[in-house]
Specification:
heterodimer; A: mainly alpha; 10 helices; B: six-stranded mixed sheet; 39% helix; globular
Chain lengths: 275, 570
């Protein structure tokens, strides 16, 4: 079998036992405040916290290696473009200019570096939180938790189902790709990237068609069991909130309050060490 | 007659996507508590009939409906899929494709969840229905990880939880191995007896369904209800062969022995079938009939020695497997689900790598060859043609492998034409693939492999989902490839008839390697192997046993006789 890109991994840590809704609330709440705040101390603290949580959830590096690498590449690209488009944005933000190198358009200032460090921290902070949520929340609870936050259960279920089918689709992709390789498409590392991309496109067509068939069957099967009849539904896996859930929600609220207080202390979203 | 629960009153239906109506003026009545079988070839409209009972037609599948369908007192057209589902529980063909829950328990509870039932009540009812179906131990497992039989029980539990009055099974045997299929049919009978429900089974494998009592058989052909009879009346009539549904093997044996079916009593079961002097007539026939010829054995083509493989350290699928396939063999590879039949073929074509052992093909060590190079020698055809086809036009699809191998245009065209001719697709060569039937698509995938001129082909369930007529066409075609073109063929199958009729040799895979490697009729006469490999005894075996004949010899003779009869018909 192929490895899951990311997906639920069963476990029995306190993070796994939390209600899905709690984890979703905590994830959304902490991410929002971390995205809003440009206080380096605050975001760095949250990064450290999420790394500790990773350890506690017994998540292994190999489970997340691929996603983390992908995200690193994209954030580096993003940081580079931010710099290319306005190399002096940090200067206008922080109101001071400590030139390190360069002249003319492309300068390197302490302010810009600091600003980009803050940006980088933001990417780094939300990703572990999202992964933590996805890996420790079983997809059926995931749907229930979205629904608890008053998202329509049809949409919640659709999201959960698509998460659940990721491994299946990977499996079918794998099968199709092998049969295409037998026909003569070189999809292994021996072939050039362009060639592999073209080969992958050949796999997609059968994949899409076989997936469409499946979607039709499953949607009929769901209708035959009354999915979508009522405005509300209940969830077999629904768990009443336990003490730990309340504690996590209180903790989340605490973190948000600290973040907001820092806005006041800093006189805005930005922590400015240059003044 | 008891109170009617399902009524069709002059019903016709035409799908929006089709030019012709699929059902023409069908009228029928099913009474409360009855157990009814609907048979007919593919495309006859029998599934359409089922979808009219559960309301998918006209509510989810659009089309033009005339006449009136009444189910449990409700007019189907005026009701909804949701409301009807309270009365009619539908178990679809392939349980795998309809599971939504992450665990078995959630999947069973799905309908209750949608009703907004309170959580404690759901847990209680799921536990109760799981107990009825004997899957209490599987509740926390993922439905995908269950065995075939447990999957089907889960799917049944998911509809039984509604306490509906009608249970509708759409081709319940399609995805199951023979032994599991038999126990499923038995389970349906148990439910019918215990829960006092009305049961409707749609299936073209008549003989398997009739191993348990059925009140009535509705025969559908070309969208029309052509018979509404008891099983015995149906079997006495000559209707089945005419519409391309296979009649039970034990009756074929009787016909072969010259027994007039009109004189037969107890026709519905091999255990009760009787006729004047039946035993002596069968005995005389078997003594006079030549034994089925043994096929010649060619030189070894594929030699596997000491093969070891497992997907992870804990589950070893093959430990020191030895196997030789000879040139010209037509081998059936059989065994329980998950025993490694597909894995073995994937090791051969290079999709998976063995942990130890050697595989030599015509003297070449397969280890030294890439997937692409192996494909020039061993072609592998997946069960679902849709997973193999990547072009829009037939010619392009069949020529793809040659294009990718840089074969010059003239030679390419000649080889494509030849492959298309062999596969009977030449006249369709400029057609888009989307216009083809399932069986034709399958042929396209075979042509696309054939064009690479492999010496051996592996086919995964070549006849799955096809009715007898298409099945026979497909198998005749493979047989001609084998006999006229010298192709060595390995068939992965669950179909005992297919194996009996077409294979020259059967390899039974078990947990500890090869359980048996012998002629098909021999395999099906070995009760121990049958049980260990989840195969099923055929009714020929049971008939031979009943009358003290040699099952191996008798089975071979009847099958050979039938094959010859069929070639005379053509």
């Amino acid at each position: 079998m192929t490895n899951n890109l990311f997906g639920f991994a069963a476990g029995d840590t306190w993070l796994h036992r939390l209600s899905g809704a709690t984890k979703l609330l905590a994830f959304v709440g902490i991410s929002l405040i971390a995205m809003a705040s440009y206080d380096t101390r605050f975001t760095a603290a949250i990064v450290v916290m999420s790394l500790i949580l990773f350890k506690m959830a017994h998540i292994h590096w190999r489970q997340i290696r691929l996603v983390v690498k992908l995200i690193l590449v994209f954030s580096l690209l993003n940081l580079l473009t931010v710099y290319l488009f306005s190399p002096e944005y940090g200067v206008s933000l922080y109101g001071t200019r400590h030139l390190l190198a360069g002249s003319g358009y492309f300068t390197i200032t302490q302010e810009q570096l600091f600003y980009e460090l803050n940006l980088a921290l933001k990417y780094v902070v939300t990703v572990p939180l999202a992964l933590l949520f996805l890996i420790t929340t079983n997809p059926s609870e995931f749907a229930a938790s979205l629904n608890k936050l008053h998202l329509s259960y049809k949409i919640s279920y659709a999201v959960a189902l698509s998460l659940r089918y990721i491994p299946d689709i990977q499996h079918v992709y794998h099968q199709i790709s092998q049969s295409q390789q037998a026909r003569g498409y070189e999809l292994s590392k021996k072939a050039g990237p362009l060639h592999r991309l073209r080969g992958a496109a050949q796999v997609l067509m059968p994949l899409i068609f076989s997936s469409l068939d499946r979607i039709e069957t499953i949607s009929q099967a769901m209708k035959l069991r009354r999915f979508g009849r009522d405005k509300k539904r209940s969830w077999y896996m629904d768990r009443p909130f336990a003490a730990a859930d309340w504690a996590v929600i209180a903790g989340t609220a605490g973190i948000i309050v600290v973040g907001l207080l820092l806005f006041r202390v800093n006189g805005g979203r930005f922590f400015n060490p240059f003044r | 007659m008891a109170e009617p629960i399902i009524q069709f009153d002059h019903v016709s239906f035409q799908y929006d996507s089709q030019a012709e109506p699929t059902l023409h003026d069908v009228s029928l009545t099913i009474a409360r508590g009855e157990k009814v079988l609907i048979v007919g070839p593919s495309g006859s409209g029998k599934s359409t009939l089922g979808n009219l009972i559960n309301g998918l037609i006209p509510h989810a599948i659009p089309g033009k409906l005339t006449g009136k369908v009444t189910v449990c007192g409700q007019d189907v057209a005026a009701s909804s899929v949701f409301d009807l589902s309270q009365h009619v529980g539908t178990v679809l063909q392939d349980p795998d494709s309809q599971f939504v829950g992450l665990t078995t328990a959630e999947d069973i509870a799905f309908a209750l969840e949608n009703d907004g039932a309170p959580v404690p009540e759901m847990h209680e009812r799921v536990a109760a229905v799981a107990k009825t179906l004997g899957i209490s131990g599987q509740l926390t497992q993922s439905p995908q990880d269950l065995s075939g039989g447990q999957k089907q029980r889960t799917a049944m539990a998911g509809v039984l939880i509604d306490n509906g009055q009608v249970l509708l099974f759409d081709e319940p045997l399609a995805a199951l191995d023979p032994a599991t299929g038999k126990s499923s049919i038995k389970l349906i009978e148990d439910l019918h007896a215990r829960l006092d429900v009305t049961v409707v089974i749609i299936e073209h494998r008549l003989e398997d369904v009739l191993t348990q009592p059925v009140d009535r058989v509705l025969v559908i052909d070309n969208g029309q209800l052509i018979a509404d009879v008891t099983p015995s009346d149906l079997l006495h009539s000559a209707l089945l062969p005419q519409i391309g549904v296979r009649s039970p093997l034990y009756l074929q044996a009787l016909t072969a022995a010259g027994v007039d079916l009109a004189t037969v009593t107890g026709i519905a079961s091999v255990q009760t079938v009787a006729a004047p002097h039946l035993e002596s007539r069968l005995r005389a026939w078997s003594a006079a009939e030549p034994a089925a010829p043994r096929r010649q054995v060619g030189e070894p083509l594929l030699t596997i020695q000491g093969l070891r493989f497992g997907y992870d350290r804990h589950t070893q699928i093959f430990k020191d497997l030895d196997l030789t396939i000879n040139r010209g063999d037509m081998v059936a590879l059989v065994g329980r689900n998950g025993v490694g039949k597909t894995t073995l073929s994937q090791l051969l074509v290079g999709f998976e790598q063995p942990q130890a052992g050697t595989m030599r093909f015509a003297g070449t060590d397969l280890k030294t060859l890439s997937i692409k190079e192996r494909a020039d020698r061993i072609g592998y055809i997946m069960q679902d043609p849709n997973q193999m086809i990547s072009k829009n036009l037939i010619r392009d699809e069949v020529g793809l492998g040659l294009d990718l191998r840089g074969v010059p245009a003239a030679e390419r065209d000649a080889r494509v034409d030849e492959a298309l001719r062999i596969c009977g697709l030449y006249e369709f060569r400029h057609w888009p693939i989307s216009a083809l039937s399932f069986g034709q698509k399958k042929r396209v995938t075979i042509a696309a492999i054939l064009v690479l001129q492999p010496a051996m082909m592996i086919l995964d369930e070549p006849t799955a989902g096809q009715d007898w007529r298409h099945y026979t066409q497909m198998m005749r075609f493979l047989e001609s490839l084998n006999q006229e073109h010298g192709m060595t063929i390995m068939l992965i199958t669950h179909d005992m008839h297919l194996m009996l009729e077409y294979a020259s040799r059967t390899i039974v895979l078990g947990d500890d390697g090869i359980l048996m490697d012998a002629a098909p009729a021999r395999v099906l006469s070995d009760t121990g192997v049958i049980e260990a490999a989840s195969l099923a005894e055929t009714s020929l075996y049971q008939l031979a046993q009943r009358f003290g004949l040699d099952p191996d010899r008798f089975t071979g003779q009847v099958i050979e006789h039938e094959r010859q009869g069929m070639s005379h018909d053509e």
